[in-house]
Write a structure and sequence with these properties.
alpha/beta, single chain, 3-stranded antiparallel sheet, 6-stranded mixed sheet, 8 helices
């Protein structure tokens, strides 16, 4: 069995807390990210979602608590946004292949095809649209063959067509390659359709569970309302990312 398909956590946090100017951004967060799951983290603005991602990635150390990663875990990251100044002359192809060894050439070609970016490889990074940039960021995150990919509001700035196309790529990668996915999102209807597990965060974990479990949780209803029953027929249980 591939060790990264075994039923033990890829990342585990224990009593994770972050304080900024005497405010608790994260408070006693305990979670486990499991192999081959689509874990969505939802919550209101300022709830600490992006800070939690930074802790998981090791960008921001916690003030208390621990983050434990499985040995040799490879993580790909797609940030919420990336601003490339016009005075930095780098095209999309150079950007996705930065620090990539020559032996990765065949994999790079496969990812270019998978993410549909062949026609924009020679474009300057600063000239890309929101949808094009997100596909480039996804391609770069995939080159090192991650076991887990973490996305922070990946479709926030996309139009409707680009939004659906982006999630279709994620669905293929998850189902075919058994890629584990953690995704921060404000799009509750989409999250209910595409996740295997959901965490509602408001500085602490308010509730968590499968879509069918969490939709009836009082904490979820308090944060997002009780008008999600019409989504029940399309909620994926337990098959992930049903678009």
């Amino acid at each position: 069995m591939n060790s990264f398909s075994a039923p033990c956590a890829l990342i585990e946090t224990a009593h994770l807390s972050i304080l900024r100017e005497r405010r608790r951004i994260l408070d006693d967060v305990c979670l486990r990210i499991m192999p081959h799951e689509v874990l969505s983290i939802i919550g209101p603005n300022g709830a600490g979602k992006s800070m939690l991602i930074k802790c998981l990635l090791g960008i921001t150390p916690p003030d208390s608590g621990t983050v434990t990663k499985r040995a040799s875990l490879r993580i790909g990251y797609v940030p919420q946004r990336l601003s490339v100044p016009k005075n930095i002359p780098i095209n999309a192809h150079s950007f996705i292949t930065l620090s990539s060894p020559p032996q990765n050439a065949q994999r790079i070609e496969a990812i270019i095809e998978e993410t549909g970016i062949k026609n924009i490889l020679n474009c300057w990074m600063h000239s890309l649209s929101g949808g094009e940039l997100q596909r480039i960021l996804l391609a770069r995150a995939l080159i090192q063959q991650p076991h887990l990919i973490i996305l922070d509001e990946p479709a926030q700035n996309l139009d409707y067509t680009s939004h659906d196309a982006f999630y279709e790529v994620l669905a293929r990668l998850h189902q075919r390659d058994r890629l584990s996915i953690v995704m921060v999102s404000h799009d509750v209807p989409r999250v209910l359709r595409c996740s295997t597990r959901i965490i509602a965060l408001h500085h602490r974990i308010c509730c968590e569970g499968t879509p069918t479990q969490i939709i009836h949780d009082p904490a979820f209803i308090s944060l997002f309302g009780a008008h999600h029953d019409h989504l029940m027929p399309t909620i994926a249980q337990p098959t992930p990312i049903a678009l």
